What we know:
Largest sheet: 2 strands, antiparallel
Low-confidence stretches: none
Oligomer: single chain
Amino acid sequence: MSVELIAPYPPGVPVLAPGEVISAAALNALQATLADGGRIAYASDPTLATMQVIAS
Length: 56
């Protein structure tokens, strides 16, 4: 589960919120934003090389 609020910019709408299960679709969408030259807002590591998570 994500500990962070993570939003691609543009558009700036969160893809992950704290407590949310991190799905492959969410990761793919965030990585696509980076590949297209967008940026990742609010994440502790905006490159997405690491993410803060809670193990369940």
